[in-house]
Design goal:
mainly alpha
């Protein structure tokens, strides 16, 4: 099995671009989260370049470790080998017709932030210096928050029924909060601080335990109850465009970061 791994943030973006292009050709919903993740990585790269982080070299190292966990899971899945439970579930849902775009994004965010971000943060730190990472970790939070808010607006522009139906059902105010990036990021920082003090010979067991918990959250995202699931199925029937078009709909125009591509 050829598991491609990156050594620089530029290589991360290049490998994500490859997955996006493959996903467009295969009409695979895996490309939806990958496009969102690419946009996050570009913002982090820009933040490193303009000095937004206290330690740019450490941030690039964190970004590469973080990305390589996603890349490894992706190539394991493509080779029909076992990936982590939460990524396995997310990728399998990408083969299903019914999940709406929002669910695909949340499944990817859930796996990558709730599991991978904490591990990557711990791996660039020690027990003594992990506190030094907190400021830069919070800077990632700002980037993620801004981007996720933007994507929500893009989705509502692309599928106006999403806003209308969720508002009528009383879910628009809490749907994104329940599975919000803030909750995931706060959990990731707590997990990083727990993981960094875990002895090396216990870490794999600890990761597996965490993975199972995150996979349970993924199942809730996939099946949020009878009523909401019924609403989502209705929305799914009226989503515009094929998978490749939806992937491109999530791409942010580089010159105007407040806009999104609408096909």
């Amino acid at each position: 099995m050829n598991i491609k791994q990156a050594t620089t943030i530029n290589e991360v973006i290049q490998l994500l671009d490859e997955i996006i292009e493959t996903s467009k050709l295969e009409q695979s919903a895996i490309g939806l989260f990958t496009m969102l993740y690419r946009e996050v990585t570009v913002r982090i790269k820009e933040g490193i370049a303009d000095g937004s982080f206290q330690n740019g070299e450490r941030m690039e190292k964190l970004d590469v470790i973080f990305a390589n966990r996603y890349l490894k899971a992706y190539y394991q899945y493509k080779a029909k080998e076992k990936a982590s439970d939460c990524w396995e579930f997310s990728f399998k849902q990408a083969e299903s017709f019914w999940p709406i775009v929002v669910q695909h994004l949340l499944l990817g965010i859930n796996a990558h932030v709730n599991l991978d971000l904490g591990i990557a943060s711990a791996e660039v730190s020690t027990i003594k210096n992990i506190k030094d990472l907190e400021s830069d970790f919070n800077q990632i939070n700002i980037i993620l928050s801004n981007l996720v808010e933007h994507v929500e607006k893009c989705l509502i522009k692309i599928w106006p029924t999403l806003a209308i139906i969720l508002k009528l059902s009383g879910k628009i105010d809490n749907f994104f909060i329940d599975f919000s990036m803030k909750t995931a990021r706060d959990g990731a920082w707590k997990f990083a601080n727990e993981f960094v003090v875990t002895p090396e010979n216990q870490r794999e067991t600890y990761i597996q335990k965490r993975d199972k918990r995150i996979a349970e959250i993924a199942r809730l995202v996939s099946n949020p109850g009878y009523f909401v699931s019924a609403v989502f199925k209705f929305i799914r029937l009226f989503e515009r465009g094929d998978v490749a078009q939806k992937i491109m709909n999530l791409k942010i125009i580089e010159e105007k970061k407040t806009e999104c591509v609408v096909i």
